[in-house]
Amino acid sequence: MKRLDCSALLVAIAACTVCRPATASDPATATMLFNEARRLVAAGRYPDACPKFEESQRLDPGIGTQFNLADCYEHTDRIASAWALFLDVASSAGGTGQLARENVARKRASALEPKLSKLTIATPTNVAGLEVRRNGEAIGGLLWNNPIPVDPGSYTIEASAPGKKRWSTVARVGPNGAAVTVAIPSLDEGEDLAPASSPDAAASGAESSSPPEPSRTVRALALGLGGAGVVGVGIGSFFGLRSIAKHSDYESLCTRGLCEPAAGPIHDQAVAAGDASTVALLVGGALIAGGAVLWFVAPRSPGPDATPRAVSPVSRLRLAPALGTSSTGAIVAGEW
């Protein structure tokens, strides 16, 4: 299985344009949707065609469908999404020896680069435990203070931190290479959100023996990450088996280097399933690892007879992609 193109992966994370792993395999319906989308494109109805390409790709991923979806995005001014998909098509095609398709996809991506609109989220350095979201999606720390390609449109930017008041604004990013920067200020002090002790406990001076709130939050997050990781590994295993089956079907149609016409689409399906398996296994493994780290670093609750001490919760913890020239992984980083 080939490695994903690093630049395409970065934009997929930043702009949320990556195609989601299929939840079902339905080649017949996918082919019908693809043909309908092509007819709409021929009529110039790109806004109607794009959702059909998306669903066709979800049901039966393929390089050809992905290329057509990228073209559709370009014609509907979703330049960042188109650019990322063209790069991914080029990477997939290069890994399977389809040099002509790779060259075309790379040229299309290069032509879009001057038109990329970018959004920079500038963050303060003195806010512990800062969390940033864009349209409800968490943005990892590696993407802060960097211009990230995005499609034109409106983006709700939110910032929060323990003991601070939540801050939000709406950023409007224009087309044709627009560059917008949103500066998050130092957050104002807010009310203490820790649960209040009972009146009897306050009168007697007794301390609550329940676990500190940071411990509960971190452990809940750890369980959530671990569960999502298990699901990701399961999806990766499913697509891995599908890739092996498709590759076996492909080989059965080839004899002494000569392949039947039907072998080409089956080969594309095998490669696409392998790509989906690689992504799902990498993400699933990273989530499981992140959950394990969170679980073990979560602050423990002292026993009732223990000497009171200051609890030092994780002030900033983030899971972010690690991109290299020959590998893809994840980084779990934190500050205590």
Could you describe the 3D structure shown?
There is one protein chain. The protein folds into 3 domains: 6-114, Tetratricopeptide repeat domain (Serine Threonine Protein Phosphatase 5, Tetratricopeptide repeat, Alpha Horseshoe), CATH 1.25.40; 117-190, Carboxypeptidase-like, regulatory domain (Immunoglobulin-like, Sandwich), CATH 2.60.40.1120; 213-302 and 312-335. It is built from 9 helices and 11 strands. The protein has helices spanning 6-15, 27-42, 46-59, 63-75, 79-95, 99-112, 199-204, 213-252, 263-297, and strands at residues 117-122, 131-134, 137-138, 148-150, 153-160, 167-173, 179-183, 254-255, 258-259, 316-323, 328-335. It has a 4-stranded antiparallel sheet with strand order 3-2-5-6, with no helix packed on it. α1 (6-15) packs antiparallel against α5 and α3 runs antiparallel to α4. The longest helix is centred in the last third of the chain and has 40 residues, at 213-252. It is globular and about 70 Å long.
Described by strand count, sense and barrel closure, the largest sheet is: 4 strands, antiparallel
Question: Low-confidence runs (pLDDT<50, min 5 residues)?
Answer: 1-22, 192-212, 303-317, 319-336
Name the helicity range. 40-55%
Total individual domains: 3
Distance between the termini: 38 Å
Give the overall average pLDDT.
76
Assign the structural class, choosing from mainly alpha, mainly beta, alpha/beta, alpha+beta, or little secondary structure: alpha+beta
Can you list the strand order of the major beta sheet?
A: 3-2-5-6
Helical run tally? 9
Shape: globular
Number of strands: 11
Radius of gyration, whole Å: 24 Å
